[in-house]
Specification:
Elements lengths: L19 H8 L8 E4 L1 H7 L1 H38 L5 H55 L3 E4 L13 H11 L12
Parallel strand pairs: 1-2
């Protein structure tokens, strides 16, 4: 699940924050000086209350699936053992037919498990995208208030001389503006 946390908010490096002073300078034909701040996107995605709530929802969803999946796996194990016992008494054709039917059940269960995982990943990615959009809005608001016009992700910064890192401020604003996100997980039957 945490694999999709990598990369984080690197997209913010793509957003040059358009502050009024920069826009005026560009209109006057001048290139404004870069006023850069740094955010640690991995920390934001790790510590944001909204994504913590999503992880909790996903853990609960997985826990609700576990008994059903274990029951189906147990049933398949028993069926496999019974099939092994029947191998010597069934004709090769009858055994092959039962083996294929069993394999079909195994494939169906594997597909269900994969579908659950896909749904979980989609739900998390949608929630993460919602958080990312909110972070971009927070950064735009902060850029107007603080006068910076570029945001770099800490993971992409090689050397910082007097770094201006605003991660904690972004996290604080994010947790206030978006304390939770509802994960769009499929309804349980």
């Amino acid at each position: 699940m945490h694999a999709f946390l990598r990369g984080g908010l690197a997209l913010f490096a793509l957003f040059a924050m358009a502050v009024p002073a920069a826009a005026q300078a560009q209109q006057a034909g001048k290139t404004p000086p870069a006023i850069i701040v740094v955010v640690d996107s991995q920390r934001i995605f790790r510590e944001a209350a909204a994504l913590k709530s999503v992880r909790q929802q996903i853990d609960q969803y997985r826990a609700s699936l576990k008994p059903e999946i274990e029951k189906q796996e147990d049933s398949l194990r028993k069926e496999d053992q019974e099939l092994a016992k029947q191998r010597s008494i069934l004709t090769p054709e009858a055994f092959e037919q039962k083996r294929q039917a069993f394999q079909g059940k195994v494939v169906t269960l594997q597909k269900q498990i994969q579908d659950h995982q896909t749904n979980i990943e989609k739900a998390f990615n949608a929630a993460r995208e919602q958080v990312s959009r909110e972070v971009v809005e927070i950064l735009k608001d902060m850029s107007k208030a603080r006068g910076f016009n570029m945001v770099l992700d800490r993971a992409h910064v090689q050397v910082m001389i007097e770094p201006v890192e605003i991660t904690q401020d972004v996290l604080k604003a994010l947790d206030q503006r978006l304390p939770t996100v509802k994960a769009a997980l499929p309804a349980r039957k």
